[in-house]
Amino acid sequence: MSFLTIPSQEGLFKTIKTGKLGEDADSRSPMDAEDNQNDDDDDDDTEDVRFIPRCSPVPRKRGASIFDETAEYMRIHLALSAGKRVSFADTTGGDLVDVKEFVAFDSDDEDSIAKWDEEEAKYRKPELEPIYHVLPEFHAPTGNALLQAVRTNKVEVEQMSPAENDPLAFTGVIRVLNISFHKAVYVRSTMDNWATYFDHPAEYVPGSHDGETDKFSFKLSFAPPYTTHGSRIEFVVRYETSDGDYWANNSSMNYVVTLLLTYEDDSAHTNINTQEMKSILKPPKAYSMNNDSEDELEKEEEEAGTSEARPGLLRPTPVCPVIVKPEIDVELIEASATT
Question: CA 329, 335, 337, 339 torsion: positive or negative?
Fold first, then answer.
């Protein structure tokens, strides 16, 4: 065989018949195959014959396409959703709202809880009430120093004192020079280091005019959240007149008032209704050789206490028994010993 010769393909492929003719051929018997051999030869041209490799798998029926699966899913979904319907009670004459009322009733549990709260309140430590103090961090001038400051600055803070019945507030008095009849005094204060501030008008003190000066009063108070220990109020004073405005700011240091917070002593809040309970356990005692005598003494003390507690009962006095000593004849004993 030359290199141009094509090798034989016999044995590498096998023929299969597809369609109805192939199935009929498999179902025929050998006798029928011989009788119809001529007919098969005539029909060879019409049969669908394919060559497939012997190692190829047997062709199988193809599965359903994605289109068929989608159609089946939509059919089931529509069939299920068609059966769902929404209806309301009022369409059938019913009520849309159903109201149920519950009546409170007394129970033993509430009584026991109330008694428990009472017993617990006897031994509960009371909450300590905070005590507030306002402390000025400046010294107001007095006497001639005050008059000199008023004549120089036209306005000055004369005094500051805690407010009555309000531990978070304080009051102050401002002395101004009587420059004009129409005048107004304002106190500008802040509690957040001048992030925000407010102007509070001061009130004129009737009868305070002494020919040269007048007095005005004001009141400032700490407010939440600035009610903790160490909170501060800073303020300055503005004096408005027809000649102009004048300021008093404690020599450019501002007037500062600090809030101090303390608590009362625990001893002042002791509960007087608390009864001292006596322990049923006896204190430990040191054991000795005379334990029996000590036990007898304790018993006698207890008996004495019970007899004193019951005056109707008389404790019998112990009687010491008479001990009779036998007489011994010494001479008789010695004579018997020698014999």
Answer: negative
Instruction: List pLDDT tens digits, range 299-336.
Output: 666 666 555 555 555 566 666 666 666 666 667 777 77
pLDDT in tens, 67-83: 777 888 888 777 776 66
Continuous segment of H or E residues that includes residue 335: helix 330-338
CB-based contacts of 338: which residues, under 8 Å, 6+ apart? none
Identify which of 11, 18, 6 has the alpha carbon closest to the alpha carbon of residue 55: 11
Cβ–Cβ under 8 Å, residues 205 and 120: no
Tallying the residues shown for the chain, one arrives at: 339
- State the Cα–Cα distance between residues 113 and 215, nearest whole angstrom: 61
List of residues 6+ apart from 249 with CB closer than 8 A: 236, 237, 255
What are the tokens at 72?
A: 């089946």
Question: Which residues is 176 bridged to in the sheet?
Answer: 155, 214
